[in-house]
Amino acid sequence: MLLQPRSLFIMTDGAYTKMLHGIAEREDDLIEPGKVFNCPDDLANKRIQRDTRISITVRNVEKVSKLGVFDLLKK
């Protein structure tokens, strides 16, 4: 999947928990129409340079400890 600058992509439910996902470390990407499902015509079969990427993960986790964060850091 090609994400344009300032894009937002949200994975939830089974897409997050059951599918393998990750981003390989490399300096550029070849945009191939058969492999990139949202390949725009103007980028087909071209290499594009990667830039800085910011990834934020937010999870809802049930409380598993009565200790607070500071109590855990003291140990």
TrEMBL record:
GO terms for molecular function: dioxygenase activity; metal ion binding. One of its GO terms (cellular component) is nucleus. Keywords: Dioxygenase, Iron, Metal-binding, Oxidoreductase. InterPro entries: AlkB-like_sf, ALKBH6. The keyword Metal-binding applies. Its cofactor is Fe(2+). The keyword Transferase does not apply. Belongs to the alkB family. This is Uncharacterized protein. The lineage of its organism: Eukaryota, Metazoa, Ecdysozoa, Nematoda, Chromadorea.
